[in-house]
Specification:
It contains 8 helices and 8 strands.
Length: 190
């Protein structure tokens, strides 16, 4: 739980001492590579703080192809946030890209935790703002940058993903075919 406490105190004014019982609200789970944390079409009651590993958030397109829209590594939160907030049906699935350990909290337990530790509202507010801002920048870059520039921007800003995410998932995330991504990579490697 220390990893989450450190993350909270780094991004808010909450002190570590005030978080003594925070672990009571979470469940620790491990997921094997390719195991689903959440499946599209199921009710979403949980969100995940990635302790170790990597996951991707995706949906199934009408043509049956998986479309990756997000990744999460250590110290990142992930869920179908709309469904989590409303207790609704997930529009996205989450799958482990590699063996993953996560702190999992249900919506009900989060509500209890925020009642017990109201100062955590600030932390979750900051996390949500950062995620939303990243989403806005991704949309802008998708519209403004060429495919090659989009690839270079991603590889420069997120080098950890370049090493850990399979090429077909990275291609899906960037809106490329795996073949096109391979061509771009060859161009920049040579």
């Amino acid at each position: 739980m220390q990893q989450l406490i450190t993350h909270i105190t780094a991004h808010s004014s909450v002190t570590p001492e005030s978080l003594g019982r925070i672990g009571d609200f979470f469940e620790v789970r491990t997921f094997k590579k390719r195991e689903l944390l959440l499946q599209e079409g199921q009710r979403c009651h949980e969100k995940f703080f990635i302790v170790k590993g990597c996951v991707h958030l995706f949906y199934l397109r009408r043509n049956g192809v998986e479309q990756t829209i997000d990744f999460a590594l250590e110290n990142w939160w992930t869920s179908d946030f709309m469904a989590f907030q409303q207790g609704g049906i997930a529009q996205f699935s989450i799958r482990a890209v590699e063996a993953t350990e996560a702190f999992v909290i249900s919506a009900a337990r989060q509500h209890e935790m925020l009642s017990a530790f109201p100062e955590l509202q600030e932390y979750f507010h900051v996390m949500f703002q950062r995620a939303y801002a990243a989403s806005q920048m991704r949309i802008r870059k998708t519209y403004e940058l060429s495919k090659e520039d989009l690839y270079q921007d991603f590889s420069r800003n997120y080098p950890a993903f370049m090493q850990r995410v399979p090429q077909y998932l990275l291609a899906s995330f960037l809106g490329f075919t795996p073949e096109y991504l391979s061509e771009i990579r060859k161009k920049f490697v040579s």
